[in-house]
Specification:
Blueprint: H1 10-17, H2 25-31, E1 40-41, E2 58-60, E3 63-65, E4 71-72, H3 78-82, H4 86-96, H5 102-112, H6 121-126, H7 133-146, H8 151-163, H9 165-181, H10 196-209
Antiparallel strand pairs: 1-4, 2-3
Helix pairs in contact: 2-4, 4-5, 5-7, 7-10, 8-10
Length: 229
Amino acid sequence: MGFVIEVPTPAIAGLLLRAVPQHVRRDAHVAMHALASWGAASAQLVQDSGGGVADHDVHVDGDPLQIPYRIAYPWPSAGYLARLTPRRQAVVAAWMSRNENAGIRQRAVRELFGVHEPWVVPFVVQLCGEYVHEIGADVARFVRSELPRHPELRHAFARFVRDNPRYLATTRHRAVAFRDLDHRWPHRADPGRAYPQIEALDVLSALAYQGGADYPGDPAPPRVPAVAS
């Protein structure tokens, strides 16, 4: 007789579903069966800070996402995940990237590096505003070395950075604060050493704004015929 995995409570299910865009929610409904029924998700969202509620949303290509700052769930069983489609596995990894356990967050984001869909971008960027420098180093390596090989995904990251300036400012502020507070980071006393989370944000800013080698480019301005004087 097979076992049954119950879905999370309706309140938590709503929090998890609103973390992904509308066109992914059908898959998210199915992916939710991979989660234990006794977990939790915070009402605080990734853009909220200081115990308050942010006055701006996080958007992916115009679709607002409400991503919980933290969830508390064990990693689902490998056997159950193997039966899910790649997108549904990606949804689970996105949720797990918000886990209260840093090891689970790192495992999740490494899976998200291989997902080439724009809606996963904020789940990766959010980890630049958190305090585990090992995860920050993973993200920095990804955006510096792997992202340039995938033009469509590169464009998605650049669009997200440009479309969410207030969220990116909050994320950078957090990264700067954690750089000074991270007693586990071995280079904390070296002011010339880039904190991995800040390094990743710098690469993404250059990608979006500064016209570097990996910059996707703005639309070409219309050609105006020269007028002889």
